[in-house]
Amino acid sequence: MPEAAISARGLARRFGSFQAVRDFDLDVAHGEVFGLLGANGAGKTTAIRMLCGTLEPSAGAITVAGVDMLRHRRRARSRIGYVTQRFTLYADLTVRENLQLQAGLYGLERERVPGRIAWAEGRLGLAQAASERAGPLPLGYQRRLAVAAALLHEPDVLFLDEPTSGIDPLARQELWELVYELAATGIGVLVTTHYMDEALFCDRLALMDRGRIIAGGTPDELAARPLPSPIVEVRSGDEAAGGAWLAGRPEVMEVLPRAGCHRVRLRAGIEAGAWAAEAAAAARGQGLALRIDTEPARELEDVFVALLEQAESQAP
User: Fold this and answer.
1) 29-70 pLDDT, tens per residue?
2) Which residues, including other chains, have CB under 8 Å from residue 308's CB and lie 6 or more apart?
């Protein structure tokens, strides 16, 4: 079996009496884009900091690019690039000065530095901003600079902790194109995000809740999981009135607005077809015309909500 780019077994982290991560097992292959999903506070950042060697685990084992992170941390960290949630480079230095500093910290040979910086500035669209101070740059450019700095030493593994948070759609698209390009060269990429649409960009996913992984697989595998609560899509001539009417129905758990419709989650045990007929008839009596699709396209968000609710119900 090929060596994993990232491997973790039994990883745990406690802060006093608080268990931030528990029973965390993970394998990411070379050339794979792996998504670690979860709400804020689920433990994603704590997990990624342990995997990167910036936070000591309370228990468990970590191997990155074939190197034991706990026994040979310095050597393992030389194989990885890490982009944090917040901008951690030097605000008073220019873009190029930051890259020069990072090249030195990574121990790049002096003769390689100009070429690597030129590549990073060109590939990340930073050449025109090379002489500008990093602090006043827009968030999207700060993200580009952070990614450029993490790639200077040509790592075997790249960690991206919510890299697209707060940046515009075009910058998000450009960043994901770069991620695919890097994975195609054999780099293992682990990205954390709470954006459900970005989950579809990953080869495999793991969903975290309360410090542990509660589900994993490819996007298609996860989307195909059975749901305890039926999902229907409802259209009406008056979207506001239709949404309010649906929200008042006792058999409806949740009403989510969509473009031109409402996505409705029914309570467990309700048969969608029978409910659709009864709801349409009841709505007509209130002067509302409803068109109900009882087999809408599956969405990962539906599965994740169901998994999180199941985990919540089983929590001690």
Assistant:
1) 999 999 999 888 889 999 999 999 999 999 999 999 999 999
2) 39, 207, 209, 214
- The helix (H) or strand (E) run that includes residue 291 is strand 290-293
Q: What is the dihedral of CA 149, 151, 157, 158, to 10 degrees?
A: 50
Domains of the chain: 6-223 (3.40.50.300), 231-297 (3.30.70.100)
- For the sheet with 6-15, list strands across it: 18-28, 6-15, 59-64, 67-68
Output the 3-class SS for 16-33: CCEEEEEEEEEEECCCCE
| 3, 172 contact by CB (below 8 A) | no
Please provide the DSSP assignment of 188-201 as one string. EEEEEE--HHHHTT
Single-letter amino acid code for the residue at 78: S
Residue 64: partners with Cβ closer than 8 Å, 6 or more residues away: 5, 6, 7, 51, 53, 76, 79, 80, 156, 157
pTM of the model: 0.87
pLDDT at residue 277 in the model: 95
